[in-house]
Design brief:
By secondary structure, the protein is an alpha/beta fold. Helices cover 54% and strands 10% of the residues.
Length: 309
């Protein structure tokens, strides 16, 4: 075990992770690394609850605004980027604090990442051509034949993951599920794993609703309109399928009313929070703190202080 220390600060959407991270930053020699699959995209500011430029100047976050919204950002890229950042921060004599709610990212940090092959643009193009000719449903049926485990896990509508699973098979002759079963190497540091876990689910739901209404007041619809005006960016890109952005895209494309978009976004946010909490609950070694406890900041500051000694 490496003697270097890192901190994980995880929690569901709207649990107060960013505010808490800035308080810890003020008090301890930390550097913040964002663990958020939406904040990586430039221009996706309001809907991702990204800290504003003024706050980012006071509290710099690594892995924010590192991709154009027309680009993709894989779990493998995150894993590679974050490993380099952790070493860089430790070399400065500081402690990395990894803050966010993208549990898929935390999973690869804690459980390791399979050695999947890099993307092959020629094969991806070939798969896209086949999808245009035969449809993604037929490609999903092909996946069922070559990799039933992945096909059971991947929805027929999930074009990106169908493409990746078939691509891996065509590159290597091995199924993507077999890669996932291989021995993986996790991060080798002393880790303080903190999970914000609201005991009052109704209060979290209320906060989620209030936050989305505030996002609308801040100009979320205009933000999405500006994003969709970018050359080559459409509502089908991964960046625009994230919670909140997907529903506003549907509004702009006249697929629903404003009230329907608002209701759908709040429901989607609640479902996201439920999935996040389900995964957090499985992390038995995590230090759980109720984010609605009036003393939760003091509790965590005390825990961090003792960990960093």
């Amino acid at each position: 075990m490496n003697n270097s220390k890192i901190i994980f600060l995880k929690g569901p959407t709207a649990s107060g992770k960013t505010d808490l991270a800035t308080k810890l930053y003020d008090k301890y020699p930390l550097e913040i690394i964002s663990v958020d699959s939406v904040m990586v995209y430039k221009g996706l500011n309001i809907g991702s609850a990204k800290p504003d430029p003024k706050d980012l100047k006071l509290y710099p976050h690594h892995l924010i605004d590192i991709r154009e919204p027309t680009e993709s950002y894989s779990v493998g890229e995150f894993h590679k980027d974050v490993k380099g950042l952790i070493e860089s921060v430790i070399e400065k004599g500081k402690t990395p604090i990894l803050v966010g709610g993208t549990m898929m990212y935390f999973r690869v940090l804690q459980q390791g990442l399979s050695t999947l092959p890099s993307a092959n643009q020629e094969i991806r193009h070939q798969i896209d051509v086949e999808a245009t000719e035969k449809g993604w449903l037929n490609l999903h049926k092909e996946l069922q034949m070559i990799d039933p485990k992945s096909a059971q896990r991947i929805k027929p509508s999930d074009k990106q993951r169908i493409q990746r699973a078939i691509e891996v098979y065509r590159i290597t002759g091995k199924t993507i599920s077999s890669f996932h079963q291989e021995q993986k190497q996790s991060l080798n540091y002393q880790c303080l794993d903190i999970s914000l876990f609201p005991n009052d689910r109704a209060s979290l739901h209320k906060r989620i609703e209030e936050r989305f209404i505030l996002m609308l007041k801040k100009g979320l619809i205009s933000e999405v309109e500006n994003l969709l005006s970018i050359d080559l960016l459409t509502s089908s890109h991964p960046s625009m399928k994230s919670v909140g952005y997907k529903q506003i895209c549907e509004l702009i494309e006249n697929k629903c009313s404003l009230e329907e978009a608002k209701a759908n976004a709040i429901i989607a946010s609640r479902r996201l929070a439920k999935r996040q909490l389900t995964w957090l609950r499985s992390r038995q070694k995590s230090f759980f703190v109720d984010c609605f406890d009036q003393q939760f900041t003091n509790i965590i500051e005390d825990k961090v202080s003792r960990f960093l000694v």
